[in-house]
Design goal:
The complex is a heterodimer of chains A (343) and B (71).
Chain A: H1 14-23, H2 37-45, H3 66-76, H4 83-93, H5 100-105, E1 111-117, H6 120-124, H7 138-153, E2 176-178, H8 189-192, E3 201-207, E4 211-214, H9 221-232, E5 246-250, H10 252-260, H11 265-275, E6 278-279, H12 285-293, E7 302-303, E8 312-316, E9 323-327, E10 336-339
Parallel strand pairs in A: 1-2, 5-8
Antiparallel strand pairs in A: 1-3, 3-10, 4-9, 5-9, 6-7
Chain B: H1 2-5, E1 11-15, H2 19-29, E2 34-38, H3 47-70
Classes of the chains: A alpha+beta (343), B alpha+beta (71).
């Protein structure tokens, strides 16, 4: 190991380390674990043979080393087994279509959302069920946080300088969840994206936090869809004029109702494309002019929220209850997939 | 940067709020852009306010061009 790979600092207590790191802007405001040589080595020792290619991270344009990513994962509280998922997520956000530079420097509050599919969900104990977007599960918390710390500490996306988000969002601390494949009546998301069921896959998108869709009263699939369409038709969403992808995360009970009533995923996306629309009277004259400058004009007396049904991605996650979630995106981004090394 | 390499004079008009981002990006790219700083924001202004921003940017461009001519 060269001297440049190791930073010699005095022995610090955990509280002293937290303060020392924060003074240098290394962190997210929450306590971190000191990335000692031993902990970083343990991370690296557990990596599988074939790893995604590393490259420059905007906005700093620095290229991380495996060791530096492992150090950030240690800081986030990740375990060695979590690192391959972090590396896959990092490779996925480097896909040009993801627009990492734009999504990190924008005033929009987007965060790098990580959806995990396949066997690795079970192996790591990722939460795909109740409270899957919330607190309480280490794998969800630390994988999303490892990615974000890497983008901040190496990519340079520090709030106030490179990260110019007007308000930010809680999702910028961590935003990782798994699909509830076991309780889904539909094919797993990654299989629909062309992967094998045995593959472990991450999907990333520069996304807003989940917007809740509460529907306890509807009894049919079409009724549920009407509520979903109403929630998606938001006048202030980037998707209205920047377009791009968006993700519907059906709760298992809503998914079951739709499946029971014969709704297929293509039929759902088509129906929502037709019905999740914003009437022009809900858009101010000034904003209509602004949209027009971006080449966006109403379709009759409505605005659409994407360029077509294929922009709406659907997954199933969550536990018991009558809630689903809509996750709008930054707009200038894509839902990018990457296989997790080691399966 | 690409334009400058081709000999085109490049002036960057930036609002004061976004100046730290521009400076950080410039450091990352190892370039030293000619920057004209005007007040923030640009969106949501009335005609008078917008005219003020345009005038400030225009005067900044003139100053930079004069400086270039004198160098």
């Amino acid at each position: 190991m060269s001297g440049e790979d190791v930073l010699e600092i005095a022995d610090l207590t955990p509280a002293e380390w937290f303060g020392w790191a924060e003074e240098r802007g290394w962190g997210d405001g929450l306590p971190t674990i000191a990335p000692t040589e031993q902990l970083v080595e343990e991370m690296l020792a557990a990596l599988p043979g074939e790893l995604p290619e590393l490259g420059p991270l905007p906005p700093s344009r620095l290229t991380p080393t495996l060791r530096s990513i492992a150090a950030n994962a240690v800081m986030a509280g990740a375990r060695p087994a979590d690192l391959p998922v972090v590396l896959a997520a990092l490779a996925a956000v480097r896909t040009p279509e993801y627009n990492l530079h734009g999504s990190l420097a924008t005033t929009h509050p987007c965060a790098p959302m990580v959806l995990v599919n396949g066997p690795v969900r079970v192996r790591l104990g990722l939460n795909s069920g109740a409270n899957c977007f919330g607190q309480g599960t280490r794998a969800n918390a630390v994988i999303g946080r490892s990615l974000m710390l890497t983008l901040v500490n190496i990519g340079g996306a520090r709030p106030g300088t490179m990260d110019r988000s007007t308000q930010g969002s809680p999702a910028k601390y961590t935003f990782c969840f798994a699909e509830n494949q076991e309780d889904s009546p539909f094919l797993p998301y990654h299989v629909r994206r062309g992967f094998e069921p045995r593959d472990s896959v991450v999907t990333v998108m520069a996304a807003e936090p989940p917007h809740n869709i509460n529907d306890h009263g509807s009894r049919t699939g079409e009724e549920v869809l009407r509520t979903i369409a109403g929630t998606m038709a938001q006048a202030g969403s980037n998707n209205v004029y920047v377009k791009g992808p968006h993700l519907l995360v059906l709760g298992p009970e809503h998914a079951a109702t739709l499946h029971r009533d014969g709704w297929t995923l293509p039929a759902i996306t088509e129906w929502l494309w037709e019905h999740a629309r914003i009437t022009t009277d809900r858009i101010s004259a000034g904003n209509q002019r602004h949209f027009a400058e971006s080449g966006i004009k109403p379709d009759g007396d409505h605005y659409t929220i994407s360029t077509g049904p294929t922009q709406l991605h659907i997954a199933v996650a969550g536990g018991p209850g009558k809630h689903s979630a809509w996750i709008p995106s930054f707009g200038s981004t894509s839902a990018c997939c990457e296989r997790v090394p080691g399966g | 940067m690409e334009l400058q390499c081709r000999g085109v004079v490049v002036l960057l008009v930036v609002t004061r709020t976004f100046l730290p981002l521009v400076q950080a990006q410039a450091r990352a790219r190892r370039v030293d852009p000619r920057v004209i700083v005007i007040d923030h924001p640009l969106g949501g202004l009335n005609e008078t306010q917008l005219a003020g921003r345009i005038e400030a940017a225009y005067q900044g461009v003139l100053r930079e061009l004069d400086a270039l001519e004198g160098s």
